[in-house]
Design the sequence.
């Protein structure tokens, strides 16, 4: 063997270059990550208030929450809509457009947007005979559907009609319905256009 012999450059480069080898991740690292995540969930559950009764007390149910709401001001349109769909919608359509040869529209109707004293009388008395609505002639025999309703329900449904489908008219109150009902007394004849035109706005 020649002691003066030098290794070839290729051997030197191979010895100097490090080689990457696959190394499995330590199990303790996964355990630590899991503990950190679990601890974070426990912390947020304890301090975030999501399940803390103090956040919701004394509101333990939707019914209980409703009791603490301030009194609603203005007409109850939700109540009016419910009455309308049960009593009026079958003939006048739920969108207030009416039905051909059956019932005139409420949307944009001059009778809806006009005198509330006349409008209250129509459901209380019913309507008979010809009537013009939005330049279209109708000949109706409408029963007194509103006579069986309470003052609150009739006021709510008439206000809903006057405030829906683009209509922008004043609300009708239960007191106004009660006054008209008392004025009508025992009248059982249906209203006509001639009769309604004699009513002051």
Sequence:
């Amino acid at each position: 063997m020649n002691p003066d012999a030098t290794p070839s450059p290729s051997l030197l480069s191979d010895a100097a270059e490090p080689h990457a080898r696959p190394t499995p991740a330590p199990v303790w690292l996964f355990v630590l990550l899991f503990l950190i995540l679990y601890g974070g969930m426990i912390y947020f559950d304890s301090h975030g208030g999501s399940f803390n009764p103090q956040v919701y007390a004394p509101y333990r149910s939707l019914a209980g929450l409703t009791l603490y709401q301030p009194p609603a001001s203005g007409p109850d349109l939700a109540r009016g809509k419910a009455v309308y769909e049960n009593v009026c919608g079958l003939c006048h359509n739920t969108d207030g457009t009416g039905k051909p040869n059956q019932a005139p529209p409420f949307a944009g109707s001059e009778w809806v947007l006009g005198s509330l004293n006349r409008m209250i009388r129509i459901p209380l008395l019913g309507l008979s005979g010809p009537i013009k609505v939005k330049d279209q002639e109708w000949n109706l025999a409408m029963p007194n559907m509103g006579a069986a309703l309470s003052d609150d329900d009739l006021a709510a449904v008439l206000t809903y009609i006057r405030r829906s489908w683009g209509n922008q008219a004043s609300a009708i109150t239960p007191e106004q319905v009660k006054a008209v009902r008392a004025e009508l007394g025992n009248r059982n004849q249906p209203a006509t256009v001639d009769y309604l035109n004699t009513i002051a706005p």
